From TrEMBL:
Top-level taxon of origin: Eukaryota
Gene3D superfamilies associated with the record: Umud Fragment, subunit A (2.10.109.10)
Top-level taxonomy: Eukaryota, Viridiplantae, Streptophyta, Embryophyta, Tracheophyta
Pfam family, one: Peptidase_S24
One GO biological process term: signal peptide processing
EC number: 3.4.21.89
Protein name (record): Signal peptidase complex catalytic subunit SEC11
Amino acid sequence: MDSFRSISIRRSTTQAINLGMMMTSALMMWKLWMCVSGTESPVVVVLTGSMEPGIKKGDLLFLHMNQSPICSGEIVVFNVEGKEIPIVHRVVTVHEERETEKVTILTKGDNNRVDDRHGVYADGQLWLEQNHIQGRVMGFLPYLGWATIIMTEKPVIKYILIGALSLLVITSKE
């Protein structure tokens, strides 16, 4: 009986270590991706239809950030004070002050009638500055972000999925 208990404890410990290693590997890959892309959030999910028809709700966007100047026509992801969720819109105007070399940016959703000064930016904000830009879109995968949207809108699905995956790892044989 003691040998059965010892094997059971050993198996449980091994499975716990495997789960921890899996989670650590995923975190390390995410951190590496952050370093390579130059942005704190290298992957984002589009949550609205403001960039349709090119980029749709549920698309998964891959971001990067570099030192080259931002140009009109680029699609950027930015943060606005007072809003937690980043916004994905196209740069329509880049304004550079020659004396101070300060660059300001105006954006607009492709599917929106007016630029982002009207309802997207914080009250009184007319331009974005470089510190607002989270990243530049370098590619996307259509529809893959729907999993995130569904799990955000229906948290019970997220808990069921996490529970099922944990149960699978715990009950799997070596």
